[in-house]
Each structure stands twice: as structure tokens, then as C-alpha cells.
Amino acid sequence: MAGRFYWTILFFVAVMACNGSGSDEPEKTVEELAIEKLAGATGSQTWTIRNGGSVSKDGTLQTDTFTDFEIRFISNNTGKNYITENSNLLFDSNGNWAFEGENYDKIILSGIQPAANREISFTRNQNRLRLEWNVPAPQNARVSALAGFYVFDLVLME
Asked: Which PROSITE patterns does the record match to this protein (predicted)?
């Protein structure tokens, strides 16, 4: 009888030990998960229009204007940075990015171009990233060609 009790206790302990998450790593914070959406698990990820992405401004397709557009989000020990190519003066060529307050679905890019210092909403669905924001018309300018509501549907560059 004592042997059966011993095996029952041993079985119970083994089941309880296997009931854990199987990982000694702490759970990621909401911010860490949001960073991974943009910069990936490695801390650097490039998004592009090529291979099925699109751009619209005020509901009108503008993809042809941005066919070679790329944006790379980087997050590492030195900070959060971005690099763009072929942005047609909508984005700065590089700068910093940050979350908008406690909203981990909105970012702000540094710089002087129209996309800079604007609240940009983002959503990620597998290998696709959607950026949405508004560029208001300048008050003291005669030409406001870049003003409007933008939607960039980007594809993860492999």
C-alpha cells in the first residue's frame, strides 16, 4: 500500500511540473509585442510596397508614385529608429519613432517631412502592415499637394 501511495504522489508531482508554460522567459509586455509588430523579433524589419502593397491618398490609389517605397523599423539598445527609401518627400530618409503615449497602435516619426510628427495608426496582419494618417494642409502655403489622408498597405520584405 505504501508503494502505491508513493507512486501516486510521484505521478501528481510530475503532472504539476509539466503543467507550466515550458518557458523560463517572462511574458512580453504590451509594448514589447507592439515593437515586434513593427521591428520584428530580431529588432529590424523592412516593409515595402513591392509584391502586392498599395498606397492611397484620400481614397485614390497612388501606388505608382511609391512603387519602390521601403520603410525599415529598428528597435535596439540605442533606441527606436526608422529608415525610408523612395518616399517622394512624404517621409524623412531616417529618424526616430515612438509610440504615441500609452497607445501601442499609434506611432510618431521624427523629422521635417509631411509624415513626421503626425499620429500614424498601424495594424499588422501576418506579413502585412497598414499605416494610416492625415497630413493637414499647410496654413501659409499656396500648394498643398501632399495634404490628405494616407493609407499605406505594406508587405514584409523577406
From this structure: PROKAR_LIPOPROTEIN (PS51257)
Pair 146, 58: CB distance under 8 Å: no
CATH number of 28-156: 2.40.128
Query: Looking up cell 521635417, which residue turns up?
Result: 112
pLDDT tens for the chain, 158 residues: list them.
Answer: 555 555 455 455 454 555 555 567 789 999 999 999 999 999 999 999 999 999 999 999 999 999 999 999 999 999 999 999 999 999 999 999 999 988 899 999 999 999 999 999 999 999 999 999 999 987 766 546 789 999 999 999 97
For the CA atoms of 131, 78, 94, 64, the dihedral, rounded to the nearest 10 degrees, stands at -40
Domain boundaries, the chain: 28-156
